[in-house]
What does this fold into?
Amino acid sequence: MIVAAYAAGLIANRLVWRRLATLARRTDRRWDDAIVAEIEKRVPLWSLLLGTYLAAGFWTLSPNVRTALSGALFVLTIGSVTFLCASLLAGFARQYGQTVQDALPVTTLTENVVRIAVMSIGVLIILNGLGLSITPILTALGVGGLACAVPH
It folds into this structure.
């Protein structure tokens, strides 16, 4: 099942994504090229995760192992989507910064701030999905934000 899902992902990667890449190259926008390229990088991992998830339904596993496996699959999936979003949004910030002439130039610092913000949200989603309470973390971030915003 895992090998079949991985093979299907590779086939889809070659057939579907190449056609999407061809369609994206025909447009004069660059954002669609970036989306296709970033998703194409992650299709093999996603197909492997899907195959593992489907195969786990047929395995007789103890409840502890099943819980650990589902948690690991959740973390890997959300982590992969978080990296996808961080990369895309940092690229969009770079492209948008190049089009706006009157604004400050977009530097690697700006891109890293975007990446850190998206990664922070991804970590919070993972922690919440694993059953950990993120309310104290959000409270501490809010109080820290207020402390930084108050003039001294």
Notes: The chain has a mean pLDDT of 84. The chain has five helices and no strands. The first helix runs from residue 2 to 26. Residues 62-152 form one domain.
